[in-house]
Amino acid sequence: MHAASLRDCEAWRAEGLKLSTNSNEACKMYDAILTQYVKWRNDETLGGFEGCISAIQAADPNFVMGHVISTGLELVATTSSTRLNERLASAVRRTVELADSQDITPRERLHVKAMELFSHGNFPKACDAWEDILLDHPTDLLALKFAHDAYFYMGAQTPMRDSVARVLPHWKPHMPLFSYLKGLYSFGLMETRFYDQAEKVAMEGLALTPDDAWSVHSVAHVCEMKAEVDKGLKFMESREKDWQVSDVLASHNYWHWALYFIEKVKIIMSFLSQANSWRCKTTGSMLDTVDACSMLYRLEMEGVCVKDRWRELLQITQPHTDDHVTLFNDLHFLMVSLGAKESRTSQRLLEGLQELAKEPGENQQHQLAGTIGVPMCQAMMEYDQGNYSGAVEQLYPLRYHIVDIGGSDAQRDLFNQLLIHAAMKSENKHHQKLGRCLLVERDAVRPNSPLTDRLMQNALALHI
Length: 464
Fold this sequence. Notes:
Layout: H1 9-14, H2 24-39, H3 48-59, H4 64-76, H5 86-100, H6 106-119, H7 123-136, H8 141-154, H9 157-167, H10 180-191, H11 195-208, H12 213-225, H13 229-238, H14 240-243, H15 247-264, H16 269-283, H17 286-301, H18 307-317, H19 327-339, H20 343-358, H21 364-384, H22 388-395, H23 409-425, H24 429-445, H25 450-462
Helix pairs in contact: 2-3, 2-4, 4-5, 4-6, 4-8, 5-6, 6-7, 7-8, 8-9, 9-10, 10-11, 10-12, 11-12, 12-13, 12-15, 13-15, 15-16, 15-17, 16-17, 16-18, 17-18, 17-19, 17-23, 18-19, 19-20, 19-21, 20-21, 21-22, 22-23, 23-24, 23-25, 24-25
Family: Belongs to the TTC38 family.
Organism: Lates calcarifer (Barramundi)
Protein name: Tetratricopeptide repeat protein 38
């Protein structure tokens, strides 16, 4: 990205997206942060995210949208809770106060409102505010991206797809970052099972921008969901040089690549899981952390011994035990405390969630904690203790509601696998039959999956 091509006050006004500041530098830094967010990449020529956030504050400390984008990015990263982190909570309050004391545009006012709602865990209302912006300003990419992330955290697959579909006709190829909408739209199509269309749209994005890591990511998902393992392996390898540069998403794309190996040959994964947990130590990103949790849990279900890795990962997840920003994160932290045999941490996480479920307020994730989060945690604890029938009893009634914990179908598939393993290991004949039925169902949706075949063989061996 060339600093010269970044948009100043006049350029934003010309696009109908006026920013309330007189500082051209602040406007350019806003563009730089937005661009890096969309590309999933720290651009070192601009000082990366951190450098640009410092620069925007220096250029105009009272620039409302500068606060919205920098505080908003910290919020959507889900690495910190405003309940516990006073610095983050006060950054949200400061943004609201600045907005109240200035004459800013209605669009910017909605941005502040959305960010504040998101900070309280009210993801649905935050999305409503972002959609209100997009109604009048369909090319406001920050509103589109923030909404996309929030829908993802809610498992709101259809709104995530339609949010992009509604604005696409307003975008023209000459507009900055136009091609990246293809990846966003493709991901929504993929999560709503339009696999062929999702792949087509992602490939259109890659034809325009070969290093669009989110479009690569979408194709990786398509191959995963269709169990096209060899195609997925070939695709990720052939484009590795392109997507590797997106440092924020690269580790996650490697995680997708690794899933194909688990399908084909499980043992090679003990090496890849190490690479993943080392990676999340260096990035500190929540996405990389939950990927490492998930990878180890999958390997353990496959019979790979990973106990030393759990202890290492616990150092990263344990400080987040009380965060409870998303149920998805909580469940992944629990995998680690269970794997590391850190029962006090597991218990604390569960009790914290039970407490928040009593008075969730407007926090959408806490509202779901009692009906979904807590029983899923309990199911994992039962499984860990060898009470497989108890795990099935907790998990089976939730199977069509697990989508509400957020994440993608590929990420949540871990819980489908957990239910199958629990059912097959249960002493209860009815559960064993259920396990076989779930495998038949899985085979119908993703034919030719080596993992499903392996599980079917295990089921036969267990229940002869």
